[in-house]
Amino acid sequence: MTAVAVLERSSSMARDVAQHVDHDRFAELAEREPEDAQADKLVGANEAARFLGIHRSTLHQAVKNGAIVPDLTTHGGHFRFSRATLDAVAVRIAREPVATLSELLPELTTTLGDPDGRRNLCLRVHERIHHALPDLSVFAVLGFKAHARSLKDLEIIASVGFPDWYFPELIANVERRDYEVKYVLRTLRPRYFDDITSAKDLGSPTRALNRRSALQTLAIFPLMQDGRARGVLVVGGAHARKFQTPDIAFLQNTADELAIALACHDYMDGARAQILTAGDLMREALRLRAESRAPEKRAAARIAPLVELFCEATGAEAVYLTGPGANLGPRSEAPRQLMSRVSRRHHTATERWGESWPQTTGIAVLAPINTRANVVVAAEWQSDLVRQQEFEALLYVFAAASALALGMDGTRQGVTTPGRRSTAHAPVASPR
After folding, report:
1. 408 located within any domain
2. For position 406, which CATH number holds?
3. Cα–Cα dist 87/90, whole Å
């Protein structure tokens, strides 16, 4: 894979875009007016890249490939674009999304199921980068943990060449010190420095960290998934070097592919984990039902082992349940409203609430026991959910397991005195 793959289009795209622009008219204007006057009527590469929603290096690479034709090139080699040209390119991008054949996704077949699979996948990326840019001698991939709440929830997926203390120190201080990694994760824009000692816009914490580790050049790229950062790709070297446009395009393209491959890896591993957890829930429910303890034991205590299994597998903060003979509902209004939204026509509902980050995400599921009785369960998380469908399915299994453990399937008399309804309203909280 080379940088040429970035925003590569068929040759007809350049011709189609060119049809929207009268180049003879621009040439005529260029002869009659000074270059500065022309520049005022057109936009430069930075503004054009922002308009198209791409990085400036990607725009330059697209011009080089002939996918985008600038309306004017100044004597200094700077590109200028008209609004009509950018509108035409935007339409083409919308209709013909970038398609690149990933070289990393096939590697999933060899790393899935491996206890160290994510690291091995990243090391394949290191081999690719080292082959293309051998002077970049250090490499690392940082990713957010499954239920991250802040930047401190970064973890080292793979690291080659960096000192052992480098990233633990960075992660421990990333929230209170202005590291470049923090800037990239917040802005979702890459940062690269040809020479750390002379870079004027490099933050002092990052400069000090790299001076201690004898690094002279550094580049950091965001790993993006669904418009959000899932981590960063970091490369560097012991000697100053110039990051050319093809280098930046190659590294950003590699980071994009790695983000997709890691997301697939986590999704498949996560799906396997949910299947195993579903089996554990049902086995534990059958064990609880078979116990010879007194049937009047409180519902919350009876299903506590099921709650522990669910929260450990999903990172949920609290779980709620209502059903025949058991009312372990939430005290706060938001989850109560969420649980009231489910019905036999709409078995699931999802809602987010809270003003500060991270917001609370809640999922509610209705599980029919028979033709008349229902169990409604809900759970809430203090983090973004990347496996919402799997968690919905697992909540359904949790509801069925709880019904078994509490005798709601008719095998027990129930957990409360006949004719009375439980008055417990405390949430079945995470044991963590």
Report:
1. yes
2. 3.30.450
3. 5
User: Does 318 score more than 80 pLDDT?
Assistant: yes
Assess whether 176 and 238 both reside in one domain. Answer: yes
- Crossing angle of helices 166-173 and 204-212, in 10° steps, is 160
Contact 401, 319 (CB under 8 A): no
pTM of the model: 0.51
How far is residue 428's CA from residue 304's CA, in Å, rounded to a whole number? Answer: 7
**Number of domain units in the chain:** 3
At residue 9 the predicted structure's pLDDT band, cuts being 50, 70 and 90, is very low
241 lies in the same domain as 306: no
Paired tokens of 251: 């590294």
Query: Is residue 276 situated within a structural domain?
Result: no
Amino acid identity at 55: H
Q: Which residues are within 8 A (CB) of 419 and not within 5 positions of it... i.e. 6 or more apart?
A: none
**pLDDT band, residue 167 (cuts 50/70/90):** very high
Q: Residue 166 pLDDT more than 90?
A: yes
The last residue of one of the domains, among 95, 117, 145, is 95
Roughly how many angstroms between the first and final C-alpha of the chain, as a whole number?
45
The whole-angstrom separation of Cα 11 and Cα 248 is 23
**The two three-digit tokens of residue 410, written as one number:** 């008719």
Range of the domain at 14: 3-95
When mean pLDDT is compared over 83-97, 284-298, 327-341, 371-385, the highest value belongs to 327-341
Q: Identify whether 271 is part of a domain.
A: no
Question: Does some domain include residue 231?
Answer: yes
Per-residue pLDDT reduced to its tens digit, 395-421:
888 988 888 888 875 544 433 333 333
d(CA 325, CA 307): 18
CB atoms < 10 A from the CB of 281, how many? 24
Give the C-alpha separation, 85 to 48, whole Å. Answer: 10
